[in-house]
Automatic annotation (TrEMBL), chains A, B, C, D:
It comes from Roseobacter insulae. Its main location: cytoplasm. The active site is at 149. This is N-acetyl-gamma-glutamyl-phosphate reductase. InterPro entries: AGPR (IPR050085), AGPR_dimerisation_dom (IPR058924), AGPR_type-1 (IPR000706), Semialdehyde_DH_NAD-bd (IPR000534). Residues 4-141 form the Semialdehyde dehydrogenase NAD-binding domain. It catalyses: N-acetyl-L-glutamate 5-semialdehyde + phosphate + NADP(+) = N-acetyl-L-glutamyl 5-phosphate + NADPH + H(+). Catalyzes the NADPH-dependent reduction of N-acetyl-5-glutamyl phosphate to yield N-acetyl-L-glutamate 5-semialdehyde. GO terms for cellular component: cytoplasm. It is an enzyme of class 1 (oxidoreductase). The keyword Transit peptide does not apply. GO terms for molecular function: N-acetyl-gamma-glutamyl-phosphate reductase activity; NAD binding; NADP+ binding.
Length: 342, 342, 342, 342
């Protein structure tokens, strides 16, 4: 059985990553590629690394015939995506990778993104796409909202602990180190090689990063009361990777046991031996997430570190994992390639 | 049908790359991993990026039972490899990735490597492993010698032109830009991040690099007379990739047509549109080789650039391609993953 | 007036950085270079970037005549340094860059370094070399102990706040991002370009890093009671730089005012406008430290980020600043070069 | 004596490099900074690494009063620069860093840049700014045209050999490896970190790079007959540096002797011991150029490698060296800082 796939936003990094993954998937075939700004080009012109693949040329989104598409990935910029999704056929299965459908509450959406949502119906319909925790809802869903890559990393580290009630919910600090591809293929001065290479810095300090909206939504729902974490992202001179260093108050041993138990059967989450720490280099290009727990010298405090590839497990790999569920395919299909090291 | 595989030298980069590739191969299973200096360790200790795989622990080579092994990859240092290969069962299929069996002439071997060969019988038996040009001999071979990664790159660019007799054989310059993983996982000062990052330089200038032995052997055999190229490798601050910039005298149009014809049916060699140039970033982590031809402003001169991943197409990918042939498996099996970009 | 300088440990990175700085200093001249493992070599052989300088060849330390040396920098490995310093002339001015004389308490030294101190007299004599806070004691000192580079960064961010008593001393988290040159020119697998580039990770997690000994000593002394911070260093794929992201509880406005006041007259410490964050790229190769203060969305919490170059302000620049004081030279002499960007 | 300096184009990389260098110059003071697109901003907003300097805010160029300016650096884009220079006071000393005044022949200019020159008088007046070879003309000049950074590198390697008539002028190949800052602070997709890091490629292959105009002009003038070299630039994932690998036919020993003799008294050109090769990492941030000569295994052929920092010796350092001459200051003043390594 082969399913027919469309990718909208094929000229961005998450679009390219979807193509890379689907090219190795035995049950999916790419039937349409949309990329308004680069419509008319071949994929070889936009992404020379994919030139060996036989793929359709890029189209304007409104040129695409969705009649025979089984599932559509939307890898479009936020705000654009909600308009496009609202106009797609109402029965088309969609995995959206933008920020547009992550927040269920219209007020929360407006608070973090500044505008009224243009597709409120779809916003209500969308299922939050953190696969390991929303499998039951994702499988039958029509529209799944991919999570923020930072939000995914932080939740892998923290969700089981919030549920178990074994950490102080008012004392959670997430210090994230993010590679540059998370910012997309955008022409900004601070993303130039000469500006970024050999240097690193914090950004969106103090609680202004939009992925906080997801943390607030998810952790508060799990805890049954408002939870607000501290979260500082940093831009690191590397192309792929997110490393979350998480400071919590709680018993390190119970934390470790809780995480081990939570992820014992998960194919993509690896909890390292107690005291070891993951590296982004060891998950690069893969759908794996590595988690390490360490005891602090101060009693009752632990440091939990989590590493994943923002483009794969943090975005396009997660999206494919969800698509597999939605199409009734084995969840891990097309996603078990080993990381690229060195 | 599943074949049982052993990898000797599993703690080096080409060993890790073999494991990465074989982990995604439907007909191969790793039964034994040898790594004398790290025997007793698990693969997760040596290569944390492979921790999700179920693999045997590393063994001393003499602890390995080769009775049920269908094919053995030797990813050992040169000089070591010839001793190990000589001691392996005489009917064991072997793909050797070292430099030990690349040169057919014992005198040439001694000239470039400085010592008498310790396995002359195997040296005579070995087939040169440049798959695209030695398929007929590789398929039935027992022992195949993987090529040098630089030697592979230069030959992909030049062999069809030497055969066609359309370039001046006395005026060939190969200027190569090599990423650092080609030097292996060795503790040398010049391979430290602080020494290499942000800088680049030529090395083995003037004709001292050992891969020249392969160029001499192969090009002279093709031409039916001695051919000696100029070859300057450079160390570039990147982890994977070889870029060969080749300066030749000949008609650029004929050169382009000849390369297009030579590689028209090759699954892994892509000749770009005339005038375009490849980037190592666009083949990284893949078994593809991209080739570009440009016309110089000086009449009768052309520049040919070739890019591949030294660990994949230049080494372990080539080795697996050869193993597929030797085992009667589809040649491309396990090797068609797209490059990792960005 | 020109002072005669010796540098012991001239073949390491802090040694090279001292030479770079002193080469531009109008009142210092290098008379002797010691480097036991590379004795007999010229500086051009050990550090080709310094080949344009006229410098003495490297000597065994016991070959050096200290009779006419006005001041000696010891850039030796820790444990070695204490033995060498104990054997140097008793009236020789010394700036030590190792870890050996940073901790005043022999028990604390043993706790963090595992051995009895071999030069207890000098340990007692040594002045802690954080220039901005120990100027009065450094100027007349004979032996000054350079601080740890991580310890310097954390103290620049925190000392004025501890003194002012405006942050919760039991709730301080220092998340540090450190470039690779801080690990020195040592042949370790994890410092290879192929291992480090494109990846990053935490290390010494949970309170095992030795620079914690300095934090404990200094903050406790300032506070008049025991203070223990949480501190997690991370290795980042860059050659120079330390970025400290510091999470504290206290009023962000008072914190900002306190830091502005504390550093108003300091030539090398720049407090950025409120809410801005520094980048290591903007201090690279210089003796400047940039500090930024941001308000967290959670009331009563602030994030303070500090950036400096570990080899300059974190080590050799600090050492020269101290040497200037000890020799009666203007403190900033030879240290005001602008950072190298990009 | 202090001279008053203006810098036009202060928001680009060569502008920032000029500020860095002049900040350490004892006889120059920056009186005006022009940057049309960022007029009104402070230097700290445009280049945070220069925030410690007391500098005037950026102005529109037409807001600048040139009455008291002793010398003006124009670090503007080409085509813009010729218009600005034509409108500056006729007696103002100018060092131009753009491409606009490098080619003396209006036809050559039009051939390489595609447009008629808008300041032909100044074009005729301008002196070519390769300091080591045009000192006599530069010192009394009013307008000096900085060379291309690639053109400078190639000429340092080749000029003495062309003059001496000891290499085959029809067989010169320049293979250049260029760091990314040479492309300026421009928002282009191929200059993004995610596109460039970890990969490298050739560009402007086959004789289309505009610096060829300079090679043709200079080498032909030296030889007294037309000389055309082959020249292939490559973009390397590093921020600073140019490495020229030059293939020539001639006697390696005579070549070496000729280069040693030519540069024996030059303060910034270092010819390495025969057979050694320079690295860009060893000249980074400095005004030094390192040159190495190696013998090829093919008789009568040599490889000459030259390394410099494109922003310093290749551009702003050269410009300051010329300004020193024009103002009657010691030529090396402000330029002898050692390279930054690592």
């Amino acid at each position: 059985m082969t399913y027919s796939i469309a990718i909208l936003g094929a000229s961005g990094y998450t679009g390219a990553e979807l193509i890379r993954l689907i090219a190795g998937h035995p049950h999916l075939a790419i039937s349409a590629l949309g990329a308004n700004s680069k419509a008319g080009k071949t994929i070889a012109e936009v992404f020379p690394h994919l030139r060996h693949l036989e793929l359709p040329a890029l189209l304007q989104i409104d040129q695409i015939d969705f009649a025979n598409i089984d599932l559509c990935f939307c890898a479009l910029p936020h705000k654009t995506s909600q308009q496009v999704v609202a106009a797609l056929p109402a029965d088309l299965k969609i995995v959206d990778l933008s920020a547009d459908f992550r927040l269920r509450d219209p007020d929360a959406y407006k608070k973090w993104y500044g505008n009224e949502h243009a597709a409120v119906d779809q916003q209500h319909e969308a299922v939050y796409g953190l696969t390991e925790f929303y499998r039951e809802q994702i499988a039958p869903a029509r529209l799944v909202a991919g999570t923020g890559c930072n939000a995914a990393t932080g939740q892998f580290v923290l969700r089981p602990l919030v549920v178990a009630g074994i950490i102080d919910l008012d004392e959670i600090i997430l210090d994230l180190k993010c590679a540059v591809s998370g910012a997309g293929r955008s022409l900004k001065e601070n993303l130039l090689h000469a500006e970024l290479s050999e240097g690193y810095h914090a950004y969106a300090v103090g609680g202004t990063h939009r992925h906080l909206g997801e943390f607030d939504q998810e952790f508060s729902a799990l805890a049954g009361r408002p939870v607000q974490v501290q979260f500082t992202p940093h831009l690191i001179p590397a192309n792929r990777g997110i490393l979350a260093t998480t400071y919590v108050k709680g018993d390190p041993d119970r934390i470790y046991e809780t995480l081990c138990a939570a992820y014992a059967d998960e194919p993509f989450i690896e909890v390292l031996p107690f005291g070891e720490t993951p590296s982004t280099h060891h998950v690069r290009g893969s759908n794996y997430c590595h988690i390490g727990v360490s005891r602090d010298r101060l009693p009752g405090r632990a440091i939990i570190t989590g590493a994943l590839d923002n483009l794969t497990k943090g975005s396009s790999g997660q999206a494919l994992q969800n698509a597999n569920l939605m199409l009734g395919i084995e969840e891990t299909e097309g996603l078990t390639m080993a990381p690229l090291f060195p």
